[in-house]
Amino acid sequence: MTKTPFYITTPIYYPSGNPHIGHCYTTVACDAIARYRRMQGYAVLFLTGTDEHGLKIEQKARAAGMEPQTYVDGMTERFRKLWDVLNVRYDRFVRTTDDYHIRTVQAVFQKLYESGYIYKGQYVGKYCTPCESFWTPKQLVGGKCPDCGREVTNAREEAYFFKLSTFTDTIGKLLESGTFLQPNSRAKELIGNFIKPGLEDVCVSRTGVAWGVPVPFEPKHTVYVWFDALLNYISALGYKNGAFEDFQYFWPADVHFVAKDIMRFHAILWPAVLTVLELPLPKRLAVHGWITVGGEKMSKSSGNVIDPYVLMKRYGTDAVRYFLLREMILENDSAFSEDILLKRVNADLANGIGNLVARTVAMVEKYFGGTLLAEQEAASIDEPLIKSALALRDKTDAAIDAFRLNEALAAIIEVISLADKYIDETAPWSLAKDPSRRTRLAMVLYNLLETLRITSGLLVPFMPTMMPKVWEQIGATEEDVVYDKLNQWGILKSQATVRKGEILFPKREVGN
Ligand code: MSP
């Protein structure tokens, strides 16, 4: 059977500082979706990378007394290392300084020029270097950058422009289609700010920036960093560069996953460029809010970044992944504090799944010496738990389809809570006192093990390090937790054997 392709991308990050928790959110979310799709049997290509050109990077490198290339070589490694430590399994890592990427950028620029969509003009306006964004005086807010509120500089130079103005209707329709942008509630903002007033042509080259891809037919110009960056999504598949053969199979992307600050580049400029190239548009653009600290976006320039290594050391990699994915609701910003993290991780992981594993395994050991009786007696009180566990996979599927990872996790934790309630209701410790109830007791514990098999199987894309440890303890094999068996009951042998192990998610206190 041939597999269905699934292509998912993160933004390519500016390697101008250390990656922080904000970057981690997008990457870990894509990783969870990619892992879930692999589990479902898709052929997945998960792309991430770094966006290494532009004035900001050049200035950073010079300030560090380094050549830009040496600087980005070092910084990019920090991103890769963090993704490794976070157990992010990407399939390809694109760097905009890679030769193949540069070939694609130049080929596309040339093609757009030849087809008349890129022309030479004069740029007169404002530029925000930290955001790498051009603004007209009208767009400024109180004379400052409308995105980040910082000072802008005057830019007046000969430049190449892309005829974005001819796309107002096409892009307007795309945004109104309701399927491209997820959640579509964000379309209103783009329509109001950009489509209603009419799109304007955008500057796609600069003469004052040496650190960039040279315009092929006039190398004193370098390609504007956003134009360069967006092309990563196709250069990494081999489009017009011969480095990979994946374009036919994987394009169009199933989803580009980005935060709201860069939505407009992906929702307006990118589809317009693809239209000129006569390429299909990405199927979805999923946009999430920001991780905030004290109401402000977490960012290096605000000086409020949280170092992921500190959190991982304290709480464990999977706990950090879980927290990020459980807290973010697509439409909203998500406030970060260690207190919120602690409450969430203690409630859902330490007292939730961790405790359920420990209790269940301990009971199987105590009452049955580690291996259940084959003979088991069902009761009607078992049904609600079994039914909820069997219905869970459909819920997580739907949540993943909608990029609502928090909803997938909430649904799983709800089944864990049901299992806790089931323990209270069936009171295994009372059953254990009555030798005539051994078959009933075995059934109760078996149902708990099956619930753990299903829930941990569905959790593995989110917590890939710890869930295999659950399987060891409950005696499940990899074969028991394949996707096809996650909506089936009765997969573990009735004579299931458990093995007590470490405490999976120790309860924490702040600073411990
Ligand atoms: N280089 C561009 C993207 C080019 S994509 C063709 C860029 N880079 S960035 O390093 O600034 O990273 C932007 C992305 O990082 C955001 O879209 C988001 O995915 C993630 N985040 C950075 N800070 C964030 C928060 N505080 N909260 C959530 N996500 C954040 O823009």
Commentary on this structure:
The two termini are 50 Å apart. Helix content is 46%, strand content 13%. Helix 1 (21-40) links the parallel strand 1 and strand 2 (43-50). It has helices spanning 21-40, 55-63, 68-85, 99-114, 168-176, 187-195, 225-230, 232-235, 247-250, 263-276, 308-315, 317-327, 338-368, 383-401, 405-426, 428-431, 438-459, 467-474, and strands at 5-13, 43-50, 92-95, 118-128, 133-135, 153-162, 181-182, 202-203, 205-206, 222-223, 255-259, 285-288, 291-293, 296-297, 334-335. Strands 3-2-1-11-12-7 form a 6-stranded parallel beta sheet, with helices on both faces. A 4-stranded antiparallel beta sheet has the order 5-4-6-8. It has a 3-stranded mixed beta sheet with strand order 14-13-15, with helices on one face. It is built from 18 helices and 15 strands. With 512 residues, the protein is an alpha/beta fold. The chain binds 5'-O-[(L-methionyl)-sulphamoyl]adenosine. 5'-O-[(L-methionyl)-sulphamoyl]adenosine binds at residues 11-14, 22-23, 25-26, 51, 229-230, 232, 258-259, 261-262, 290-291, 297-299.
Short description:
The chain is α/β, with parallel strands linked by helices and 512 residues long. The protein is 46% helix and 13% strand. The longest helix has 31 residues, at 338-368.
Major sheet attributes? 6 strands, parallel
Helical residues, percent: 40-55%
How many helices? The count is: 18
- What is the structural class? alpha/beta
Let me know the average pLDDT.
96
**What general form does the structure show?**
elongated
- By CATH, the superfamily of the domain at 346-485 comes out as Isoleucyl-tRNA Synthetase, Domain 1
Strand tally is: 15
The kinds of small molecule bound in this structure are: 5'-O-[(L-methionyl)-sulphamoyl]adenosine
Radius of gyration: 26 Å
What is the CATH topology classification name of the domain at 346-485? Answer: Isoleucyl-tRNA Synthetase, Domain 1
Side by side, the strands of the main sheet go: 3-2-1-11-12-7
CATH class of the domain at 346-485: Mainly Alpha
Termini separation (Å)?
50 Å
Unreliable stretches covering 5 or more consecutive residues: none
CATH architecture of the domain at 346-485: Orthogonal Bundle
How is the quaternary structure best described? single chain
Percentage of residues in DSSP E strands: 5-15%
